[in-house]
Amino acid sequence: MLPHSDKRPAPNGLTRKQVTAWRNSMFTIFGLSGLGLASWVTRLPAVRDALGSNTLEIGVLLFGVAVGSIGGLLASGHLIARIGARRTLVGCLTVGPIGLTVASVGASFAPSFALVFSGLMIFGVSAAISGVAINVSGAANERALRRTIMPIFHACFSGGTMVGAALGAVAEFLNISVVLHIGVVAATMFAVGQLALRYVQHERIPIATAEARDRANTVPDHADAVLFPADAITSDWRGRLALWREPRILMIGMIVLGMAFAEGSANDWLALATVDGYGVANEVGALMFGIFVTAMTVGRLFGGFLLDRFGRVPVLRGSALVAVVGLSLVIFGGDISGGISVAIVGTVLWGLGSALGFPVGMSAAADDTHNAAARVSIVATIGYAAGLIGPPLIGGLGQQLGLLNALLVVLVLLAAAGICSGAAREPRPARPTA
User: Fold this and answer.
1) pLDDT, position 11
2) Cα–Cα dist 351/358, whole Å
3) Closest CA to 119 of 172, 53, 186
4) Distance (Å, rounded) from C-alpha 411 to C-alpha 54?
5) Which of 39, 299, 391, 425 has the maximal Cβ count within 10 Å?
6) Measured at the alpha carbon of residue 302, what is the angle toward residues 429 and 253, in degrees to the nearest 5?
7) CA angle (327 as vertex; 378, 318 as ends), nearest 5
8) Model confidence over 152-174: pLDDT tens digits?
9) What does residue 267 show for φ and ψ, rounded to 5 degrees?
10) Which domains occur in the chain, in start order?
């Protein structure tokens, strides 16, 4: 049998070069998603000052993201099933930058609370749908590659947030206007995103027959690579809704919910919680957010090794424990000798512990290729609902209890994620038949 070359078709009809280009494009798109989110989050203190808002009103602004996200999440599975993840992403990487630009204009020229809210709602629709679509496409690419890659995709998202956090800190330090900073980021997201999408493949590439694989002389260890067939059960919305009753999918969703809530709360509130809870400058708050996303990136880059060595369940349980310890240090660090230094250590642990829950949940949802795209959409929807709707809840509690105390809710959800980790166990290899 001849070795597999870039020009010979892979079992799913793609060449190795095409699958690799698809992977590299997903790296870029995940990174752009993180860049857009972090660029806005790091300017929240400046937006609050420009609008003259309090913590509750900032929570209402974030609820604008949530309002858009609810609609986006409800539509995402049906939209992706109808037009595919790639075409969905084309629209999202056009609409999302527009929403960010509108919000930045509302925070800069004759500051308008309503305009910022509207822009964030537009961004929320795009972010929610895009978040589901990139995970569907990423899970399909992972299956085509035949290796664990999802944590690295999410590491690219975290890498994008690192870049966004760094740019936000620099913009704060240099007193660059919100509209100029966010406008440049939005233009970059659109231009680079549309270029990267040229290399993204459809997640429902037809599966080659055994005869076709033989003609292609594919290597044995790659001969079973399949993507996501369009199964009959997902041909209409009733069939897709029926998958929401699967116990394993709901348990995986609980894992992702807890971890996404922990990540989303840090994304939206860590900078402000540090500024208000520890009495430090805005730049220090932006730096703390940068420390968090850096820890998440490291956890995702090296998480694949831990998953291959120990398996999903032990790693997820250990991650939940580390995140609980880290978040506890952040919440109660002001009462411990060392203050902000203790909070920095806690932020590192919080980021490391929250790193793998979301990507592992995506991979676990795709274990069974039948209706895999629909299952990944369900789990991603649960995760993004937690990550986008939860933070405004933290804002409401923070107005009454203080932001640090409001984060106690996240501890409960992290514990629940650890308890449900068994649902993500790898499928047992099929027994050989005679």
Assistant:
1) 44
2) 13
3) 186
4) 25
5) 39
6) 60
7) 65
8) 998 898 788 888 888 888 888 88
9) -60, -40
10) 16-204+232-424 (1.20.1250.20)
